[in-house]
């Protein structure tokens, strides 16, 4: 692995930062301590620092020369509302909060890159180091974009990475175009007519209506969408009734939709609303769908994904970079930044290694969001080097 020697030299220091953040996890928009540490370190390295974007967001800026070229690098800082079961020294000190997704590692890798870039300044142009709050459901990335992130800190391109336990350290996966799914949540409120369980003829049974809607909704994916467009439509809740002998008045269905384009999302949610309303009407009941858009699909710019893959290849070799890696059904709010500015998102392997020695942990290969997960510190210098090389390649000093 072609790790930058100056970065390798402070691997131990990065490990200490990472474990300190891991031990003090903070939920979305509450990252006061983490964001203060990030701002303090960035200032110490010699970056210009802006705080308070999206409440706890931080942007560090390094400018070299007069080139108008600019690049953004983004890391996320928030933890998850879950109890950690690891027993090592840097396990979470806070009950019910845990860095179960490795954002402690993402933040540390970007800090490592900042330290190196501010010291060496081996590029021409401006780099913005974006530390965002609330990736895990709060949409901190969206809030930063809405608060004018790219007006205040214009970026020609923007890049991010996420650790991937199922790949070993030293391997990367990326793909052009849609890479992570967009998420959508829905509720369908069904109103029938309640009555005695022994006298169905004088009621409109919302339980039967709900069952028909669930069945009919399965045909949306199988009959209304192309087999070339992966879609998941899952109805995950049915709520109705409290008694053996009462036909309830109402029922509620809830669920989630995942897909890779806004067009497919529109088509599926339109079909779902239609199916719910019309099926209910067929039984003399009424259905009111409430569909709420979550994170949009994460779509890599083809050119920038190829650029990011090239930089990864320069570190670990062609055989260790999947340029057409598999799509992922999970979601990421970096997608909002990619809707605003072209760029790319890469998955970096974090399997193997020695960390994650807790209860159910299995080294860096422990699944994300598992109570035994830990970020693998072996990845820190490689990830920081990737961030640094993206800047040096994109803002390469050009001969006059
Ligand atoms: Zn996560
Ligand atoms: Zn995550």
From TrEMBL:
Mn(2+) binds at residues 101, 103, 136, 162, 369. Residues 182-280 form the Peptidase M20 dimerisation domain. SUPFAM superfamilies: Bacterial exopeptidase dimerisation domain, Zn-dependent exopeptidases. Gene3D superfamilies: 3.30.70.360, Zn peptidases (3.40.630.10). It comes from the Bacteria. Transmembrane segments: none annotated. InterPro entries: Amidohydrolase, Bact_exopeptidase_dim_dom, Peptidase_M20, Peptidase_M20_dimer. The Mn(2+) ion enhances activity. CDD domains: M20_Acy1-like (cd05666). Keywords: Hydrolase, Manganese, Metal-binding. Its cofactor is Mn(2+). GO terms for molecular function: hydrolase activity; metal ion binding. Belongs to the peptidase M20 family. This is Hippurate hydrolase. It comes from Stella humosa.
């Amino acid at each position: 692995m072609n790790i930058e020697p100056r970065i390798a030299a402070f691997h131990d220091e990065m490990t200490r930062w990472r474990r300190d953040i891991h031990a003090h996890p903070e939920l979305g928009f509450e990252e006061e301590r983490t964001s203060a540490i990030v701002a303090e370190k960035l200032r110490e390295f010699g970056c210009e620092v802006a705080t308070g974007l999206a409440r706890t967001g931080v942007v560090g800026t390094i400018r070299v020369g007069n080139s108008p070229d600019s690049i953004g690098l983004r890391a996320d800082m928030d933890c998850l509302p879950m109890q950690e079961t690891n027993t090592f020294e840097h396990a979470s000190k806070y009950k019910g909060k845990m860095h179960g997704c490795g954002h402690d590692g993402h933040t540390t890798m970007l800090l490592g890159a900042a330290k190196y870039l501010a010291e060496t300044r081996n590029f021409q142009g401006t780099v913005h180091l974006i530390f965002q709050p609330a990736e895990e459901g709060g949409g901190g990335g969206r809030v930063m974009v809405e608060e004018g992130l790219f007006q205040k800190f214009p970026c020609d391109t923007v890049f991010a990475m996420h650790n991937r336990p199922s790949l070993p350290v030293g391997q990367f996966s990326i793909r052009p175009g849609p890479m992570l799914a967009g998420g959508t949540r829905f509720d369908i409120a069904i109103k029938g007519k309640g009555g005695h369980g022994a006298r169905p003829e004088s009621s409109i049974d919302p339980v039967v209506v709900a069952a028909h809607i669930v069945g009919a909704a399965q045909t949306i994916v199988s009959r209304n969408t192309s087999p070339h467009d992966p879609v998941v439509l899952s109805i995950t809740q049915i709520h109705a009734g409290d008694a053996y002998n009462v036909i309830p008045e109402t029922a509620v269905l809830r669920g989630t939709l995942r897909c890779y384009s806004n067009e497919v999302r529109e088509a599926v949610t339109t079909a779902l609303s239609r199916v719910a309303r019309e099926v209910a009407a067929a039984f003399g009941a009424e259905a009111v769908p409430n569909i709420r858009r979550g994170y949009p699909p994460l779509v890599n710019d083809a050119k920038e994904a190829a650029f990011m893959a090239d930089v990864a290849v320069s570190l670990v070799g062609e055989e260790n970079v999947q340029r057409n890696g598999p799509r992922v059904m999970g979601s990421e709010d970096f997608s909002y930044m990619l809707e605003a500015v072209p760029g790319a998102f890469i998955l970096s392997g974090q399997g193997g290694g020695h960390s994650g020695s807790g209860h159910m942990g299995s080294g860096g290969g422990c699944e994300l969001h598992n109570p035994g997960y830990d970020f693998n510190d072996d990845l820190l210098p490689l990830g920081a080097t990737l961030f640094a090389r993206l800047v040096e390649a994109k803002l390469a000093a050009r001969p006059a």
